[in-house]
Design brief:
The strands form two sheets. A seven-stranded mixed beta sheet has the order 3-2-1-4-8-9-7, with helices on both faces. The chain is built from nine helices and nine strands. The chain is an alpha/beta fold. The protein is globular, with a radius of gyration of 16 Å. The chain has a single domain (2-223), classed as 3-Layer(aba) Sandwich (Carbamate kinase).
Length: 225
């Protein structure tokens, strides 16, 4: 299968060490024996920290986005270092480059592309662009909940949701550079229009990536209807 994997920056850099990079590298190398992989890496706390600084300096949101994009690309380079020869050793700056680099047969790793597009959105657009079979979004929670699980003990995990229902849930959210929302509306719109099979699950457990690709019940499955 052709698979796009989105890994939140907070997953890889929670402890500011190399452990998660190494673990994901092992798993991705193994998966590439059977699948064609494209990985989109988020910015995490480093991006948010830098965005806060540049915002305090008076920069507009597009400039804040641009700073965040640079951090995602640094994170992508860190993962490339861990993957070594298994990956194409250049970070694509757009979807056409990602497609061109993929002719190498190696794992492609990229960060953000342009202002107003989160890495959630980038991963969904990339999946449509390359006609991927599946999108796996690895985030900091187990999946989609009825309410924020970090704040409410009675939050319940939703095992399956339609793209339309998810768009309704996200409607009215205030999205700014570096802010955290469960998922990006642009990403959901892309999932809906391309009928893209998508799984959102907890990236702190790297083995969840294998489970999601194998079709095991893990996290939240987003269906296109």
């Amino acid at each position: 299968m052709k698979i796009v994997v989105a890994i939140g920056g907070s997953i890889l850099l929670k402890e500011y060490d190399s452990k998660k990079f190494k673990k994901y590298s092992e798993i991705l190398k193994k998966l590439t024996e059977k699948h064609k992989l494209f990985v989109v890496v988020g910015g995490g706390k480093p991006a948010r920290d830098y965005i806060n600084i540049v915002r305090d300096l008076g920069a507009g949101e597009a400039q804040c986005d641009d700073i965040g994009i640079e951090i995602t690309r640094i994170n992508a380079k860190l993962l490339l270092s861990s993957l070594g020869s298994a990956a194409y050793q250049k970070v694509p700056h757009n979807f056409q480059e990602a497609l061109e680099f993929s002719t190498s047969g190696k794992i492609i790793v990229m960060g953000g592309t342009e202002p107003a597009h989160s890495t959630d959105a980038v991963s969904a657009i990339l999946a449509e662009y390359i006609n991927a079979d599946k999108l796996i979004n690895l985030t900091s929670v187990d999946g989609m909940y009825t309410k924020d699980p970090n704040k409410y003990d009675d939050a319940e995990l939703i095992s399956e949701i339609t793209a339309t229902e998810l768009l309704e849930f996200l409607s009215g959210k205030d999205i700014k550079a570096g802010t955290y929302e469960f998922f990006d509306t642009t990403a959901v719109q892309m999932i809906k229009r391309s009928s893209l099979e998508t799984v959102i699950t907890n990236g702190y457990e790297p083995e969840n990536l294998i489970k999601a690709i194998n079709g095991e019940k893990v996290g939240t499955k987003v269906i296109s209807e």
